[in-house]
Structures
1.
Amino acid sequence: MKGFSRRQFLKASGTAVALPIATSLTLNGCAFNKETLTIAYGAKLSSWDPTTGLSSLNPAIQSFYKSVFDSFIGQSPDRSLRPGILIDWGWSEDRSKIQMTVRKDAFWHDGSPVTADDVVWSLERAGNSAGGNPMHFIWSKITNFSVSGNTVTADVSEYDPTIFKWMVHLTGYILPKHAYTRLGADAWERTPIGSGPYMVDKYERNNSFSLKAFPQYWGPKPEFKTVLIKMIPDAQARVIALENGSCDLAVGLPFDEFNRVIGNPSLSGNAYPVTDLGLIFITNKDAVMKDRNVRLAMHHAINKQKLIDELMLGYGRPMESLQVPGYDSYDPSIGFGRPMDSFQVPLFDAYDPSIKTDFDPYRARNFLSKSGYSRSKPVALTIQTTQGYRPQDYEMVKMITEMWREVGIEANIQIHSETEHLRLRAKHELASASFFNWSNSTGDPFMSTGLAMLSNSPDSAFKSAELDRLIVPLLKESDERKRIRGYQKIDRYIADEGMIIPLLQFFQTVAHTQDLHFTPHSGGEVLPQEIRSQ
């Protein structure tokens, strides 16, 4: 790799391997405190219940939750499943039941043991539609629990191949029955109790919180006795906090600042691909977004590589589907015209295997002209975006609208928060187009294509009865190879119809003092319990 810069090597390698960039010395003369670790995050935490409300679906705060609570099943940095509160799990031979074995050495932060009854209560609560869990339609499939010692058996109303994957994903956390029912939801927010490696010590809503190591934690003991989490939405402020020594590690630095700060001999850094996708949701309530020509023109007008090169400084990969490299059904040919083989249904009578979704402004203008639009008679729409939630999010949307203008699309930009985006998406009230982040640390296609596109999902913006008919049979497909292949064909159909606009796979930046050793997680989580001193 002689002659390559750090960024060129990362870009050319095309792998999901993190690139460590390490140097030495002490930051601004500040000695590193071996007892306390201070981390600056961009995300804000508004609730300490990881299983209810829109906050439970926010991938940016799962690191907070996983520091305090245990998932039913654990996950390694490479996405593989590992024991969590459950040390064993599986299906009956006829796929009508599941069995779970609860570990005997786990304790709640109040010192009481974690029990099989806690697992049952947590799953029943998650499946109750009145309980506020946005994924209750998944959890409600698990019924008729029975407990024998530390073994839990339950019926499954219909086979779902993703059930155990949900136990490591969003809302898949175990809570203490005795403590939650005694405290109630309001008091719980002041004194949350988990079984994870850290206990909540102090919490200032949307600002900061401190954690203390839990001495009875069943897993590897965290090295740092105290962790201070600073919630700093402004990325430049996180850079300043790192450089002035008020934090030891900062997550999500702008790429230009990341390149600069790692030149400091007292800092190290990692910039690595994560299972996060930047995309534009399309809401097809209005006539303009029901027009396939307009949707495809929007896609063809976007030069994704230019976005990555100029805004992300090369830290990213252009994407054409809802699957990123490493996902179970990732197909790099989607969007580039490969025929759909034998996937023949009446819906595809107009399928054109030559259709691509790569950058082609000529094709974009041609699609618009078919619907009577041009630069002199542009189509008008609104696109929403966050500003600072992801690196260069607003700047990316601004550049996209300029690309659209060149072909005949005039877009008005509206800025809102990530919370507002989630709220509007759940109510099917997003604008015609909306830029946001999609995260799927499991890599399962249902958690990407299924959730993002199935009409009854709280996460879908494009509602299509035809697409539902294609996805629904895969929800209980027991042949894994057939299920994966089915989602690949559906992803191709989505691309050919322009139902959503995938843009790029995100890279995450993490910079820290030279005294720390940080191991990247492909899901983007930055967990204080996994950070060590050099």
Note: Confidence is low (pLDDT under 50) at residues 1-32, 336-356.
2.
Amino acid sequence: MSSKIIAYTNTYIFPILLVASIWYPLISNYSYKETSITSEITEASTKHPLVEQARIIERLELGALKVHSLSPHQILRVAKLLKDGEVNIPSLPIFKTAAPFDESLVNSSHSEWQLKYSGFIIPNILLSAYDISKDIEYLKMAKDFILGWASFEKKQWLPKGFVWNDHAISSRAIVMASFWNRYKNSPIFNHSDAEGILQLAFSTANLLQNNQLYTYKTNHGTMQNLALLKLAIYFPKLEEMELYKNKAINRLVIQFNYFINSEGAVLEHSAGYQKFGVDLLSTTIKLLKESTAEVPEKLKNLHLKSQLFLESLYREDGSLPATGDTMIGAGKQLFPGLISSQPDSINQTLLKKTGYAIWRTKSPSHLTISWAYNPNMGHKHPDELSVNLWRKSQNIITNVGYWPYKRADRTKAINWPGSNAPHLQGEAFSSDRKSYIISTGSSKNTRFIELLRKEASGFNVNRQIFQIKSNRWLILDSFEDKTPNRLMQTFWTLDSSLYITNKKGNQFQLSSDQTNQKMIMEFLSSEDNNTIHPIYGNQEQLVGWNTTKKGIRPAYAFPIEQSSNQSWSIMGLTEDAGTTPPPILMNNWVDNQNWEVSQADGSSITRKDHKMYIQVAGSIKEELTLTAIPRAKQIDTEVNQSYLQAKEFYGGPMKPLIKYRIKVSLLILFIASFVFISLKLIKNNQAKLNLFTSVSWVCLAMWVHLIYFN
């Protein structure tokens, strides 16, 4: 090969190929794939879904894009405004628009709006309005929006905003399927528009089946598979749909091996996502049946167990505890009165592998204890060993709950101070840590659990939790630390509806306008001068906040701060009987397995190694023998192995990394220019220079693809 050809290759061919190798995989991954839509395919597609199929599976909606939270009146109001050229959906920005689909709105405003717009919330509302009013204009507007989106999507080269977000694509698929079910036999049906709809359905299915866009780790991957399966049921005559259907089913079966564990827990650290996960699994079973696929026995068993765990999470007013991304006050009870036939003793749900304990009484009361931490799964708040307490229709002790993703302060809000988990001052969100059950114990009126959290730098927390009947709780925390001169913190956050009145010292009365019940909360620690000063809605630290159905609300929080080594603290909570109870006293502290706590009224709790002795005002005397829980029984080997197999197989979704691609492309352009100038100026040793340049391009290509983008 002549030196001129080599020089030309070094100057032009190598850099062009390298830039193409950087951008082509990204562009091809999101390209609008088309198929041949014949009149026969269009006509055959109007026969699907079958009437009975549609009746059973209409309508599946996904997460943030649900519209059934809007009343029929609100839906019709929003739809009428859309007719008049105004987008005005409750809790979302207001826009003026000249057409049902408006390209300028795709990347407008904040992330929540972008997700919902790209997820077809507009045609979803229009379809709901059509169902309510039978006004064909709403169906026509939905068609115009979908066809407008199809034209817009064809022109896109690179991912921007939420256009090709996994959740948005899944939601578009669901809305398109619902639209087709109404459109295929409507007065406005025509073959030309139908072909455009079918093309978009096929292109969307192609995106959903792409493993490089598959979010296998989270519920988003489940939504992708369900959306793909629904498209396959609604558009079975399109090319490759049978293949896509089988792929969706196979991915679902694999994912449920680690998305929901053998205890029935959705491993996304959240009571709210337990509910969503149960909904997804219910939909999976429904769609499998309608796609004529056999439902694996394992999925049926998981479905039952996951429903039972979800039911144990519900309080009697239908609310859910604010673990992880759960909105306080959100929920809907599935099986009212599940424990109404139980005696007034403490009924327990214990998930050792997952990291949950739930104690309920008929009275009623509901205590949720969480030490769950699955690093591979989402929606995690650092909150291990935290508790959520509800009693007699009143949320009492809680965590921050769901903090909107669109807020810039989300990461700060959901950090350790957003829960009552003991932690190091300034401890990182993702600190290296593990939590375990140490022991449990129970008697007729008393329930006990002991937990341990170990942090890699040497900080250990031992939390012991007691409940006596349905009106008394005591939580004893003790701390050890190998690193000197550090502080620990605990923030006991109350529900935003509660008021506090300081009774005496570190005793506080809790009351609310919602119920007549009053509680006494008090604190004691190994540091005698630890006076508690309540915090209310602190903006700087973001301590003392709840996220409720009505928005973010300030709340009272009690901060505990003391030495992280060789110290202890107590939080006591009891029903206010009308007189201020005597303060809690630590009569004897040896270590976390030998101590005695008492009150002047004769109540006491004593621990001697693996024995507990309970006496309440001289009337209840109980003895508990503690049962140690081996750590081996708390390791979920099956889930870990299944997840690692999926990770190895799928490898994870492609990251657009557009800024990085631009940077390295500019670098390549600069180097190519330098090579061009060098070859022009340096006449001697051309052969050596060409060889050096060729080797350099190869090395750069290896660095870009093996190091820079990994």
Note: The chain is about 40% helix and 25% strand.
3.
Amino acid sequence: YPDLKANENMKQLMEDNLEELIWLLSHENGKTYKEAKAEVLRRRILLSSGLWPLPNKTPLDAQVFGRVQHDDYSVEKVHFQAWPGFYVTGNLYRPVGEGPFPAVYCPHGHWEEGRLVNNDINSIPGRSITLARMGAVVFTVDMVGYNDSSQFEHRWSKDEYKLWGIHPFALQLWGSVRALDFLQSLPDVDPERIGVTGASGGGTQTFALMAVDERVKVAAPVNMISSTMQGGCVCENAPLIRFENSNMEIGALMAPRPLLMISATGDWTRETPHVEYPAIRSIYELYGAVDRIENVHIDAGHNYNKSSREAMYRFFGKHLIDPEKDWGSFTEPPFEVESEEKLRVFINGSYGHDSDEEVIATIKRQIESRVDSDYKKIVQGDTELAERYRLAFRDTLGATIPESNELASIRISMDERTGYVVERWILGRKTEGDAIPAILYRAKDPGRQDAVVLVSPEGKRAFADARNIGPGTEILDLIEDGKAVLTIDTFLTGEHHSPYKETKRTRIGGFMDTFQPTDTAYRIQDILTSVAY
């Protein structure tokens, strides 16, 4: 800047365009840098659930019936089809009056009674009754395999189905997205004022939905956002979603919308006031929105008890239901829960529905149709769509092309032979600790050469002449053609095995594809690292 002071015209030009300069320096492809990682995380959640690109929304065929009217609220039974043949089931609690009212979506966690749980630790009917009395329409929903949602067992996961994004996490997330569609379709709901809250596994559903759907305006995931425990059920551990992040980053995707983090001294959220809350609050600081995030720490075990619920009521009252009213001293009034018969949608599970295999076949057909249509558009020259798929494929693999200064390349040896030089290397990236055994065949002269990377499931040895202890004919032909040639042992091939047995990865906790790329993805990364070298 001092060198520019002599040039008043340049100085004035910079000052006149300062805001534009700042914008250009902080954006990439129209996205701010602070949102670039958020875009990746959202895309991975949707990819893992077969929801990228977002499917066409089929008719819900929603049925609302069995109304029980009280003086200050009503409760009804609900079912609709998130996918054709796949039913979402629950209860609808409504205030008295015509509205439009704000709405609250309430998924439940792994309590045995599901959405009907009513005890000192958690009461979903009590939460719903109170919110309805406060002036909100409330929809409580069954997790897959609970109560009236009997088409699928809750704890199931098949690798074949996961490749299609079909698993409990995916079905529940799409059911949640369609639940917002259902709420917005109700004449007494204000479609611009929707909140979501749930505890435990319901907390996971809460932050997954708020991460991918901007229609969620206020959220309170309870006793779930943790840097150390990410959820113990298959319905909380979809593939891809935690390659480089924990639930903290997913929770931060709510910013700058109002977020209440309720934690407890007796579970994995015990450190929230000191760890998770400050971390997520720092993201809100980037938006200038620290007044929209709060943490309430409860001295209790894993719960959504009365104290936790009252913290949620006050937050939702202030940010969603009626900002003009003072909710600071609001407490939960007594309530009386309906009988199970009045809340159950399908008594004894007796309702006609498609089998799980029929539902899966329907989802597969829709995905195939969507991908086939996109493929034709790309072939016809849709470069924007092609770029979207490139990014999605990159995020699925978790792979990147390293910059040259990110590489950690160690040469082990060098031999001069007739017509070429042989170098043995270990290639990798400085921050990752990966190690790729490699052999480079290059010309003796230091000039530039075109290069070829050769890859085989058998590793480097597939291109060697074991009898003559040297390169095979394919490498020799390329050398004669003036090419430099690199052969590598990708992840868990070649030198990654001992001579006596095959090396395999240790599967930890049953959810390895949630936290780490697959063997294939690691091998693709090794190729990209080698290309960068």
Note: The chain has 16 helices and 18 strands.
4.
Amino acid sequence: MNGRRRNGKRTKFGLRFTWKDLLLYGFLFFFLLFLMMGIGGFTAGTGSSNIPISKLVSDIRDKKVEDVTITDSRVEITYKNGEKAVSHKEPNTSLYEILKNAGVDPQTIKINVRDEASVNAWINILSSFLPVLLIIAFFYFIFRQAKGAQENIFSFGASKGKTFNKDFSKTTFSDVAGVDEAKQELSEVVDFLKHPEKYRAMGARTPKGVLLVGPSGTGKTLLARAVAGEAQVPFISIAGSEFMEMLVGVGAARVRDLFTTAKKSQPAIIFIDEVDAIGRQRGVGIMGGHDEREQTLNQILVEMDGFTPNEQLVVIAATNRPDILDPALIRPGRFDRRVFLTLPDIEGRKDILKIHAAGKPFVKTIDWERVARRTVGYSGADLENMLNEAAILAARFGKKQIDMKDIEEAATKVKLGPEKKRMQSDEDKRITAYHESGHAIVSYFMPHADPVHRISIVGRGISLGHTLIPPAQDRVHETKTRLLEQISTMLGGRAAEELIFSEMTTGAADDIEKATQVARAIVVEYGMSDLGPINYDKERARIFGEVSQVSEDMQAKIDREMRRIIDQRYEAAQKILKQHRSKLDKVAAELLTRETLEGEQFVNIIKSTKTPEKKAGNKKS
């Protein structure tokens, strides 16, 4: 019989019984047997009519009966015409005597006597002992359950870490791209684990801990697996949240058990994912030093730098929030090294694309250089997801190979969500077209803004349209000028609505929120405003329980400075749109017709639309 697949192999269905199952089923069988005996035993001959004993004697006298079978007081009758019937006699009387007393010769019929004394004896025995056996079985299972619960209680202190032997991890550094500096740092850790004697000869010790820091999707977990694969040592993986339980002291007990297990397998690697779940700064919680999380953290600190040295045991931890970790955890002697993972640059993105493109049928004309430039700001996880979405899209349309159009659609889907054909009125489409055109026009006439990649009034996610303006190149620094131009671009949609319709809509809410965030960062984080190079951020003080150093008077100045920046950049956007009203109308009209404009099409429309106005700024193609 065919069955389901497991690990790529087809298995067969089958019944598997343990002795416990057999015992349970046996009890059920005897219990049903007991019930059957309680309602009259085996009622063979179901469907036969019941007749009184006098009717049986009369039928025998009339020679209608072929034979009878006697079982204790039960008399089963077979007539000559094939019919069957059942009758009952007194337990201590004989059918022979009944017939003689009625003047009927017993020799006229065949009488069979069935002796079931032994069967009845066994039934009597079972009926006596079965209730006792059922009670014993009931208490047995109750005690088994109680024992299991007790074992679960005492196993709370056991580590939840998953141990993988040295042959498990097939991931190596060749499977990781875009983080060359991080691989170089970790390759030294691998060499420490494989050749410790070389470093001991120079008086060096093995790094106790490596902290992987970086945004989500940059490959922290993948790097940890690659280290285990390269070093060929046991790898114990656990998440920070798996230390915590509702019982006090369980987290610390699990830490002790984790390190005890790892020490038995030295050299080994312990990987703690999302270490910030237990590594937050101490003393900022509402429970103080009695907090279960703090006790767990204290035990980790002792294990990593206690009296017992860990000669060949390396702890690798990953987090995307290093700013909230306790200083004692990240000091030298515990996490000796910090490896920072950033979003990949163009060369890193090309290498990542090559890794994830393996095994997928792409057309030969794919320009991976162009794809890498198109995906500025994408993490490794974003790129992998993008190529997977492109493969799904190509398969959906029955293609044999993945082309550039599929990749472009997948890249947009990863950042903005799937395309949605919402039912919009003509008025809503016109408002959306002018809104998105406003963003594009303002960006085009900003001297330092990046070129527009695509404009669309097709809804994606929760938005009714979008204007894609990805960075033209990888940048380490952002200037104040570019930040201010970004605010103007964000406010270009609201400015276009007010210019064309003399009205405001709710569609600009997200743009306003992002513009406000950038303006606030300029003032309170980057020190780029007239208030000077001072950090006024109150969020850190609120989160960590610190006393805010920003006075009410200074907060009012911050609010006024943010309002001044927003007002100035909104006026700049309005000025550009008024000067290039004809271009705004032309782009909006094309959007209403085509729904989507690529960057080259947008630039051609701008260049082909003649206006008497003097252009502000310089154009980009």
Note: The first strand starts at residue 5 and ends at 6.
